[in-house]
Amino acid sequence: MRILPFYLLVFLVFACEWPFDTTPTDESQYFIVSISHDITRIVDSAIVEISWTEVTIEDFFHFIIERRSAIESTWIKRATISNPTISSYTDMVDDDTTFYYRVSISDINGNARSGEASTTIPLTTKLFVPADYDTIQHAFSTPITDDGDSIIVSPGEYNGSLGVLGKNVVIKSTHGFTSTSIIADDYFRCVNINKGVLQGFLITGGFRYYKDGTSNVGGGVYASGSAILKNNYISENTAPGQGGGLYLTGNASLYNNIVFHNVGDNVGGIFISNATGEVINNTIVGNSIAGDSLGGVSITNSSVIFLNNIISEHTGFDLLVTNDTPASVVAYCRFKDADPTDSNGNIPEDPLFLEVANEDFHLRPDSPCINTGHPGDEYQNNNGSQNDMGAYGGPYGE
């Protein structure tokens, strides 16, 4: 009776190894997997070829192909192959990262051997719209787009609200806002952004109609986190709440944008709240509340750097800075509420735009806003002269 368990144990050990033809000295060589591809730039998806050595076993059941990426901790089944003569599998990858593959061969009793291999897909750092993707949102949302990448956008109208959230990506138009626009869906804000840079777009159509019960702020843009908006034209947006053109919070910043003819509750242009970023060299003109040219910009409970901006054409206030904002710096700006004796370089004089009726906010040669922005070298115009106030001045201006 004591001998029987011994023989049963010996049988089970050999039964586990028996289905496989050979027993190599190095068991890692039992089943060799290799990967090949000719990918030089991935857009959307690409093909990789997984192959393995031919191994003959008794009572073959199937091959199992599994995959995980560099950011995944668990294996995901890609295929089950029941034909023992097959020794390769074609897979589609959708990211520019390292992929790990595991191929297992098993018999009907569940005995299995596996082999693993990996491959790294070359990085794609620039995506093009519409050449690679038909929409900006699609290009941003693909797993191929990572922190530090760029999305380059050709001229055209891009319909649909845009969410730029969670990735530090530069989204830039090739020809600027005169030929490239982001147009919101009805009842939706045009852009939500909390990271990266959005540059060179006409941003329009946000909340273009009121909807019962809606109280959202920022009809055109809600900018938070570390977002940067640069060289955009934000126009014809409506917010049932504050900031028809734009709501700014967190460490988000604005450089060389034009904010024109937006409608909001009390503040039609820009509402800045709980913010710590920079607002430099912007032009905010003719924003309103329900058709009346009321407030242009309000700064509340913030510590922003507000420099070299022109605020004009509001029958209410141009700029309102509330008492809970002592840490904010407002200097070298044009707004009609400025004290003529202001020691911070702020002025109340007419900025003398070239042609407001045709939305041309370049400055006339005799404008008091020319060469009267911040005198620091970091704010100089492109020609090396002292900063011009407004969207066309400074290092990011024309």
Q: What can you tell me about this protein's structure?
A:
The chain contains two helices and 32 strands. With 398 residues, the protein is mainly β. It has two domains: 19-120, Immunoglobulins (Immunoglobulin-like); 126-379, Pectate Lyase C-like. A nine-stranded parallel beta sheet has the order 8-9-12-15-18-21-24-27-30. The radius of gyration is 31 Å and the shape is elongated. The termini are far apart.
- Spans of at least 5 consecutive residues with low confidence: 1-28
Figure out the total of helices: 2
Shape estimate = elongated
Question: Largest sheet, described in full?
Answer: 9 strands, parallel
Write the layout of secondary structure elements.
Blueprint: H1 3-17, E1 33-36, E2 46-52, E3 60-69, E4 76-81, E5 88-93, E6 98-107, E7 112-120, E8 126-129, H2 136-141, E9 150-153, E10 156-159, E11 162-164, E12 170-173, E13 180-183, E14 191-193, E15 197-199, E16 202-204, E17 221-223, E18 228-230, E19 233-235, E20 246-250, E21 253-255, E22 258-260, E23 267-275, E24 278-280, E25 283-285, E26 295-300, E27 305-307, E28 310-312, E29 319-321, E30 329-331, E31 353-355, E32 360-363
Outline of the structure:
Helices cover 5% and strands 36% of the residues. By secondary structure, it is mostly beta strands.
Identify the notable features of this structure and list them briefly.
Pectate Lyase C-like; disordered N terminus; Immunoglobulin-like; mainly beta; 2 domains; nine-stranded parallel sheet; 398 residues; 32 strands; single chain
